[in-house]
Amino acid sequence: MATILSFGPLALFRSEASSHVIYYQNGQMTQSGPGLAFWFLKERASIIELPMDDRQTTLFVKGHSQDFQEIAVQGTVIWHITKPEKLAGRVDFTLDLASGGYNADPIGKIEGRVAALAEQAAMAYLEEAPVRTLLDSGVEPLRARLEALLLEAPVLKDIGVQVVGLNLGRLAPSKELERALQTPTFESLQQKADEAMFQRRALAVDKERAIAENELANKTELARRENELIEKEAENARARASAAAEANGIEAAAEAGRIKQVEGARTDAERDRTAIYRDLPHDVLMGLAAREFAKKLKTIEHLNVSPDLLAMLTAELGKARTPSLPG
Known about the structure:
The chain is α+β, with helices and mostly antiparallel strands. The chain contains 8 helices and 10 strands. Strand 1 and strand 2 form a beta hairpin. The longest helix is centred in the C-terminal third of the chain and has 104 residues, at 175-278. It is rod-shaped, with a radius of gyration of 73 Å.
């Protein structure tokens, strides 16, 4: 806004470079241009100040779709003044020379016109299609329609206002409708999540089964190898027993042969000795027997001689002493 400094009946007016000032004195326009500064008499002056920078008007439209569903869109319209002197004749931008503010609300009036045009066009667009079609199409078709309408709107050009830009947010249904529209998608996503979870579980079960089968296969292989080892050990034990039995048999056969040979030799010797004794006289045999008996005795403490034995010994001695007569 401009700065007004009062010095009695005189005052100093100074504006910014982004403002267009129109100065009237005694009902006649004396100065018009941006960023003016001048002295004036308050009783005779009328000053108009128009902002020449870009302005933003907030836009909020709530309408209904073709199927009577509530839908809203929010955005901003950017505009500026192109013909300040023409606009000053249509909208009151006169300043209060005491405070430096506007006597009315000119900016609000322009924003109202811009917003009214945009709201009418937006509501008409929303009524042309069902809510699902509108949401699927997005905000771009609406933005293009509003921009084309506002850029060439005669009601704005006639007052020297030009729309230079339009920004729109998303089309937003009511909360209840949004939840209803989200339900199928949510259910679909939930179903996909459940399927993914089931697949993970199935994969985990398959892995567990594979692990169990692998463990069972390992145990089976170990059992088979253990059986092979047991059979091999049994076979080796049988082979060792067979070899030991064979060795014992050979040793027993050799021992039996040796014993047989020794006993045979002893039997032959005994037989030869018996043959020798068989041809000896009776008294010689008795003498040999007595000698062998004497070898067995260490001492003789008592000797009993029966009459029969004494008679026999005497007879034998007599035979031994009697010389044999030649025949």
